Amino acid sequence: MNVHGFLRPSLLGQMPEGSVATPQRSAERLSRFRSLYQTAADFGWRAALLGALYRGLKRASGLQLGAIYQLRAADLESSTVASEGCQFRLLEPAEIVSWSADPQNDLNAAWAKHLQAGRTFCLGAFRGDRLVSYAWLAEGPVDPQHSLGVRLALPRDALYLYKAYTHPAERGKRLYQATARQALALFGSAGIEQIVAIVEYANWASRRSHDRLPGRWLGQVARVGRKQFCPQMRAACADF
Known about the structure:
This protein is an alpha+beta fold. It has helices at 3-6, 9-12, 23-43, 45-61, 93-99, 112-116, 175-187, 204-211, 233-238; strands spanning 64-72, 87-90, 120-127, 130-138, 158-166, 194-200, 216-224, 227-229. Helix 3 (23-43) packs across helix 4 (45-61). The N and C termini lie far apart (48 Å).
């Protein structure tokens, strides 16, 4: 099906009499339809429709759903994850500012200040002198703004992964898996033995990336307004 031909802006702009159509609204609707079709192409129509339903509920009620993922260093001992010829190192604040100039890196110059606090780190993967992937990690209590608004306390041997990104041209090469392995190897000498992350519902690409790792899903978290629900959190934390 020719998505671009089927979803013509002229069709999206046909509004009932008395309503107001704006180029911005038409563009937003076109973007949503294209996103829907792209998700269906990548993950199937069931995933695409469930994702659209979740985003609608999220806009209407503030509902946020996520799943807790745990990757232990011991899980990686019997697995193999190629580094795809990349070099890994921690980024400096000045580098965050510099790399943020390219929109495709999905970086904000203001994030550099988080590195200066000493509890947050950004591990970058480089191919030559080009940044191709990175992961933001933090130790200690997790700021709710990075965990779907849910307050999450971690054991001392854990790092929280709150953002991972791969350059569009490098996707499909499992660089996230390689970066996670490198993070555990790098911080192992400091007593870190596991990485914990929360993957928001309908983030199918992230879910697939985590499923390719030998870790496990610990439970679900949800938040609506000021109320948070972690029905499996107590048992999950007991397993840490």
